[in-house]
Amino acid sequence: MKYFLSIFLLCCSFCLSAKNNSADSLRLIFRQSYSTIDPSLDKNKERLDSMALELRTLSDSTNFAVSSVSIVGAASPEGPTDFNLNLSQRRARTLFNYLASRALLPDSIASFSFIGRNWKGLLEDVKEDKNVPHREEVITELNDILASINAGNPDTNENLSRIKRIAGGVPYRYMYSRFFPTLRTSTLYIGYQPLFDTIPQPDFQPSITTSLYEYAIEQPLPLPESTMNVCKPFYMDIKTNLLYDALLLPNIGVDFYVGKNLSVGANWVYGWWDKDSTHRYWRAYGGDLNFRWWFGRRAYEKPLTGHHLGVFAGVVTYDFEFGGKGYMGGLPDENLWHRCNFISGVEYGYSLPVTRRLNIDFSLAIGYLGGRMMKYVPEDGCYQWQSTHHISWFGPTKAEISLVWLLGCDNYNRSKGGKK
Questions:
Q1: Can you say whether residue 97 is alpha, beta or left, with left for phi > 0 and alpha for psi between -120 and 50 degrees?
Q2: Global pTM?
Q3: What own/partner pairs with CB < 8 Å and gap ≥ 24 does 141-145 have?
Q4: What pLDDT digit, counting tens, does each position of 366-416 carry?
């Protein structure tokens, strides 16, 4: 009977040892910027229930006892460094507290690791996915970041900016949607100890990434939930053309970055000044739509900055008179589409960073202006038509020196005048 019991305990020991490499670890997924457990996310409920049952079984066992508990907290790379480190601490402590309330897990056997931004996990994901845009360049940057951190340098916010700048942010957006959700984790590893000397102790070697920057404390205190919002990168601008402003023609424009170094924009100008007593009119309104392709070093670093080539098309109508002959674009007493002149062309420009959220954009366009233009003179309180002209102009069609305000998450200049 004693011989049979020894064989049975040995078998149990080897089974537990085999389980140690898989079933005796738990990986919990968290929502972005949260450290509270969401059982509905991924397979969190199934994993928690399974681990809680296993721990309760071990607590009731007379053959084995839990000898060590290792918890690793991690966060995805977006967000400030300090925020992610604190978030890692809260996630690790949350998982431990949850299981400790359901099984006997004293703090004395627990060790914690807080890795903050999980660069190593991201690198492993990129290596496994052959479809990551600009994959080799991303791998090179991630290896450089990890080498710098392992050499003792702090994980600065510039590391995240380096990844975002690759190919105008295309790889970052791919990784953000596919990899980041599974990097927001807390992982728990369990070590066992036999209660009989005749039973071999399982070889427990949890694969904790302690070769990375490890922040360990003996008894970490729960930190309050942060109210900080972590957002997706978004790039747009609002601008005004100072040349039109100088001509007393108020105007506004917007640009939206749509990816792959491309943006779509719209501009509108409206000025309707008149002084009937002296027959002076200064009127113009119209707008255009444009598509721009951004290129060059600054455009590579951040969208909506640097060189750009574009195409545009729009409409404009006007009425200019200064006490004598007047010029009116289009046909009078009709709607906008009858009165307007049509304009289209190609443009080149450069958007120069000035301050953190301000650029100056210099642009010049050549193209075609077509439509009708009426000449008239004021006589006896009326406006006498003189002639109608068909306009067909090829040449410079637009000039721009614009103040550009950058809006959106991550849409700011990292340097001023090329210096940090």
A1: alpha
A2: 0.49
A3: 141/166, 145/119
A4: 999 988 888 888 877 677 788 888 888 899 999 999 999 999 877 878 654
